[in-house]
Design goal:
The chain is α+β, with helices and mostly antiparallel strands and 207 residues long. The chain has helices spanning 20-31, 38-48, 81-87, 99-107, 134-139, 146-153, 195-199; strands spanning 12-15, 50-55, 58-63, 67-70, 76-79, 112-114, 123-127, 130-133, 171-174, 177-181, 187-189, 203-205. The mean pLDDT is 87.
């Protein structure tokens, strides 16, 4: 028989624990999207002591302390910790940083992401603070409900119900906020970092 050497492949993996933020990250990574009823899904995982994963070999259960590996074709499967430790070494990337460093970069207009995020193209960025003229908010802004527009409309209506002229500096202030480009291509406004995200040191600056 001929001899072959297994090709070295860098894989992505995360260890399943009973930490709710870790469970959320795993469930949404496997699903490839944000889950609406995530709290009840996390409760179910904790009660059953693990996660059932549909693999190429059928449904397999990842118990707490097992690692969940993302394969080279994007598939997921569980691995026992002793086997994982004998098979894989941790890859230390020289360009990784803390969440604090990533946040400072994001505030400068750059994009940041975690190495541990398995979703394709996921990253965070900051929508900067802005000021928009009240007439623009009332007449042209599509991202506000009509009830909010009606509230600001009061500022440019006189006692006779007529529109009055608005000064250039009569603006509505919008504060800055964090956003995430999700795995499904959508933009999540008001992204909040989990405890795992804030304590992680596998952040990378993309710009």
């Amino acid at each position: 028989m001929e001899k072959f050497r297994k090709k070295p492949v860098m894989i992505e993996a995360i260890q399943l624990t009973n930490d709710r933020s870790v469970i959320v990250e795993i469930l949404e990574t496997i699903a490839g999207k944000f889950i609406d009823n995530i709290s009840s899904e996390v409760d179910r995982v904790i009660i059953q002591g693990g996660i059932n994963i549909n693999t190429l070999e059928g449904t397999m259960k990842a118990n707490f302390n097992d690692y969940i590996i993302k394969g080279i074709n994007g598939e997921f499967y569980p691995c026992k910790p002793d086997i994982f430790e004998k098979t894989y070494d941790v890859v230390k990337l020289a360009y990784t940083c803390t969440f604090g460093d990533a946040l400072e970069a994001v505030k400068q207009g750059k994009r940041a992401a975690r190495v541990g995020w398995n979703g394709k193209g996921m990253f965070i960025f900051m929508r900067p603070a802005d000021e928009l003229n009240v007439e623009f908010v009332v007449d042209k802004m599509k991202s506000l409900p009509q009830s909010v527009k009606d509230y600001y409309l009061q500022d440019i209506i006189n006692e006779k119900g007529e529109r009055v002229s608005v000064e250039e500096n009569d603006n509505v202030k919008f504060t800055a906020y964090l956003c995430m480009k999700a795995a499904d291509g959508s933009i999540v406004n008001g992204w909040l970092a989990s405890q795992t995200d804030m304590l992680a040191e596998d952040w990378v600056i993309l710009d």
